């Protein structure tokens, strides 16, 4: 009898990378999915488009399209968010002369040089709580020290085309504020701040731009379609395919303004929240284990409520309507 096929291990994992290059030069778009192993919609959307490109029903007119359907094979094999850690944090190559610290560092050592070859990133995700799909963008143009950026208009145009009813800004600002909140009075820890870097932060640091698309709840049967349509939308916007663009209502733009950590496993939400549930000033959001009541300090929206958050990690974000114009 033949020997049974051994179970795959982290050492045997391989990143599948699908690349399509038109003969006419043009934009270089990279699409990623499966950065978190339990987020499968991007993988399904990419495989569908890959079949269309292979069979010729979709033709790439110019530029280069690279798709990574499963960016974290270990997390996907385990069907959980992380392999050894969150791949969408500390998304940077290992410093020269050092050994990769973990499995995800080995992945970034492959993925970062690949991103360096591209201009635009579309990173496809989903989320745990109920809620509608939305896009996340980076900062406005600035020359500050946290996240200097000069391509906000292009990034905003991409977000507008992805078909969501909402676009959210403000991730790295709020991540940095969360660090200060956990360590009041201390200088901002640069190593901890670097941990807040994800795929798009890396892409912007290399002169490109990127949008994260949260395609809906993990198990939402519509999420793969959202991912698939978004890839087509990006290709259309960049002039890489010839397709009619649907007429869309402009999305509502929100800005993250705070993050609240779960301090104890007994901290509980006041009710089952969904992403983008509206909250009125003074409304009770949750209760701490010691009986303290958390109330909204203004009108706004709950984002990424996680009733399963571990103590010491992000419990929920809070957003308000933004005055930014895309």
UniProtKB/TrEMBL annotation:
Residues 25-129 form the Succinylglutamate desuccinylase/Aspartoacylase catalytic domain. Keywords: Hydrolase, Metal-binding, Zinc. Its cofactor is Zn(2+). Pfam families: AstE_AspA_cat. The keyword Ribonucleoprotein does not apply. The keyword Oxidoreductase does not apply. Gene3D superfamilies: Zn peptidases. Coiled coil: none annotated. InterPro entries: AspA/AstE_fam (IPR050178), AstE_AspA_cat (IPR055438). This is Succinylglutamate desuccinylase/aspartoacylase family protein. It comes from Variovorax robiniae. The lineage of its organism: Bacteria, Pseudomonadati, Pseudomonadota, Betaproteobacteria, Burkholderiales.
């Amino acid at each position: 009898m033949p020997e049974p096929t051994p179970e795959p291990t982290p050492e045997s994992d391989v990143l599948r990378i699908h690349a399509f290059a038109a003969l006419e030069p043009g934009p270089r778009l990279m699409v990623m999915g499966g950065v978190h192993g339990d987020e499968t919609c991007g993988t399904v959307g990419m495989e569908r488009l890959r079949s269309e490109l292979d069979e010729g029903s979709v033709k790439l007119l110019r530029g280069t399209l690279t798709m990574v359907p499963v960016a974290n094979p270990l997390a996907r094999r385990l069907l959980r968010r992380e392999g050894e850690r969150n791949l969408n944090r500390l998304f940077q190559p290992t410093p020269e002369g050092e050994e990769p610290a973990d499995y995800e560092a080995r992945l970034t050592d492959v993925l970062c040089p690949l991103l360096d070859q591209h201009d635009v990133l579309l990173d496809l995700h989903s989320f745990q709580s109920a809620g509608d799909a939305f896009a996340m963008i980076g900062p406005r143009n600035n020359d500050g020290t946290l996240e200097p950026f000069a391509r906000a208009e292009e990034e905003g145009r991409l977000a507008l085309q992805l078909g969501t009813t909402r676009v959210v800004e403000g991730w790295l600002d709020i991540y940095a504020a969360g660090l200060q909140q956990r360590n009041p009075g201390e200088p901002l820890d640069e190593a901890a701040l670097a941990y807040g870097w994800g795929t798009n932060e890396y892409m912007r640091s290399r002169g490109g731009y990127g949008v994260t698309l949260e395609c809906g709840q993990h198990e939402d049967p519509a999420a793969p379609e959202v991912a698939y349509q978004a890839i087509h939308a990006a290709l259309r916007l960049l002039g890489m395919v010839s397709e009619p663009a649907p007429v869309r209502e402009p999305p509502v733009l929100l800005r993250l303004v705070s993050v609240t950590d779960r301090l104890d496993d007994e901290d509980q939400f006041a009710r089952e929240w969904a992403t983008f549930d509206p909250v009125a000033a003074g409304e009770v959001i949750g209760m701490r284990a010691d009986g303290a009541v958390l109330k909204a300090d203004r009108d706004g929206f709950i984002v990424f409520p996680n009733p399963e958050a571990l103590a010491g990690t992000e419990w929920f974000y809070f957003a308000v309507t933004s005055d930014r114009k895309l």
